[in-house]
Specification:
It is built from 6 helices and 36 strands. It is mostly beta strands. It has a domain of about 100 residues: Immunoglobulin-like (Sandwich). The termini are far apart.
């Protein structure tokens, strides 16, 4: 066990070339070892991992980093036909924190070594030492996602506690994180890191792949277990135990991070030929009462936070519902292929709220949307906090909508000052199975709704609700709408925050 606990002893100590080149022996491993490591780390002050590396690897530019390439023939399990391979990622550029990576087989862990046997170096790195670049920043998982005779990347863990995945036919978009701490708080956000990984070798072809991770930050340590299954929708079951170093009053569980620059629901940013630019278009929630909520995302002029108070939530996610190329008209980015990400809580999460944070952005290179669950009771030192959930990376939410769902929201200003126009399209069994038009129930916390009407929308076999909104000089208005038949709600709840 001594070698395993070296991860904790090395916390904050630079990883020298000699340490990296040490013989990678075997050591016993069990999932409970990661729990013990996290508990021991939490009892000490946080120290960020570092790596002593020679030039130019101590300050790689983007071009140089791209010139470090993994040797595909070095992929873990490449010749064993297990349906998954592991490709390592080098440390460098913006990925400065080294991570310790071990592969586990039959209860034994073997530490991987980063050197020139695993990577090649392009012309922008003129004098690559024999054992460069000395450290990893993460890894990719690849497998036969689309065809049996070809491997596709379906997940990646790299940078702080960030990770991404895709389902069949998709390209990378939004990210998940291990934990969010103090997001959008005055004292500044804290970004926990995954400082070590243990990747279990699948027992046979088609098996799920299990990854253990050790999370650490100034405020908290944690032990994570990811059970990953690739497919049309790639799923990850996350089982974690957090060990706070200090009281955590604002912690985000199952955090999701995405990008919304402009779209049908808001076009604040002009000067772009593309009609829409976003990885996700809305926040979807299935709350503990069974209410389905759809909140279109926006790119506000000032930082906006929204809290959706709940008890025992059944799920939430950042979703890309519009899958038409014509919505985006981007031949390179193909935003219509970006995955939706749904969080399915396991067990009762109790009281708390889903928090949505929308950050002003003028460029699509910045992730400006964050969503997560915040428990109502702070996490306290000395009290391990377990949490479990399942992530679904796919085309849509994994739960069908029995009534009417929101297909799209279109919003824009009218020619009259302090007026805006809205059109919300609904489709689903509650509408398509009858010719009777539903009633509208729409309210606004400020301003006035005028001329709300519902009409048939044959193109989607649904209906369109449209209305004008007189702002009345308000700076902000929370809008809410549902469709009804009699006293029964038959649709998702549409929520929208209008800001001046």
């Amino acid at each position: 066990m001594a070698t395993l606990f070296a991860v904790a002893r090395l916390a904050g100590e630079p990883l020298t070339a000699a340490a990296q080149d040490a013989a990678p022996g075997l050591e016993p491993f069990a999932a409970k070892d990661v729990l013990k490591l996290a508990e021991d780390l939490a009892a000490k002050d946080f120290a960020r991992p570092a790596a002593e590396v020679p030039e130019p690897f101590n300050a790689l530019k983007a071009e140089q980093y791209r010139d470090i390439r993994f040797r595909n023939e070095q992929a873990l399990w490449q010749s064993e036909r297990l349906g998954v391979e592991v490709h390592m990622l080098p440390r460098g550029w913006i990925y400065e924190t080294p991570v310790d990576v071990r592969v586990v087989e039959d209860g034994q862990a073997r530490r991987l070594v980063a050197d020139s046997r695993m990577f090649t170096f392009g012309p922008s790195i003129l004098a690559a030492p024999e054992a460069a670049p000395y450290a990893f920043s993460g890894f990719r998982l690849v497998g036969p996602l689309s065809r049996a005779d070809r491997v596709d990347e379906f997940a990646v863990f790299q940078g702080a506690s960030y990770f991404r995945a895709v389902g069949l036919g998709q390209s990378y978009g939004l990210s998940a994180r291990g934990l969010a701490v103090n997001t959008a708080q005055p004292a500044g956000e804290e970004f926990p890191i995954f400082r070590a990984f243990w990747i279990e070798k699948p027992r046979n072809a088609g098996s799920e792949i299990i990854v253990h991770a050790l999370l650490d930050s100034p405020s908290v340590a944690g032990a994570y277990r990811f059970t990953i299954a690739q497919g049309e929708t790639t799923s990850m079951t996350v089982d974690a135990v957090l060990y706070p170093r200090r009281t955590l009053k604002h912690v985000g569980l199952a955090p999701l991070t995405s990008m919304f620059l402009r779209g049908r629901a808001q076009r604040r940013v002009n000067g772009d030929l593309r009609p829409a630019v976003h990885n996700s278009e809305g926040l979807a929630i299935l709350n503990g009462r069974g209410e389905r909520i759809w909140r279109p995302l926006t790119n506000p002029r000032t930082l906006q936070t929204s809290a959706f108070v709940d008890k025992a939530p059944r799920g939430f996610g950042l979703v890309q519902r519009d899958r038409a190329f014509g919505t985006f008209e981007d031949l390179t980015q193909h935003f219509e292929r970006r995955p939706s990400l749904w969080v399915e809580p396991r067990g009762n999460w109790g009281d708390g709220f889903v928090e949505l944070i929308e950050i002003p952005s003028e460029e699509e290179i910045h992730d400006n949307i964050v969503a997560y669950w915040t428990p109502s009771v702070p996490l306290e030192p000395g009290k391990p906090f377990p949490v479990s959930y399942k992530l679904h990376w796919g085309a849509d939410e994994p739960l069908p909508t029995p009534g009417a769902r929101i297909v799209r929201t279109t919003a824009g200003p009218l020619r009259k000052e302090n007026w805006a126009r809205f059109a919300i399209d609904f489709a689903g069994p509650a509408i398509s199975e009858t010719a009777e038009l539903p009633a509208i129930d729409v309210t606004a916390s400020a301003g006035t709704v005028h001329g709300a009407r519902v009409e048939a929308h044959p193109e989607i076999n649904g209906v369109r609700v449209s209305f004008n909104f007189e702002t009345g000089g308000a700076d902000m208005s929370e809008m809410r709408m549902v469709l009804k038949r009699g006293d029964q709600t038959i649709s998702e709840t549409w929520l929208y925050r209008w800001t001046a």
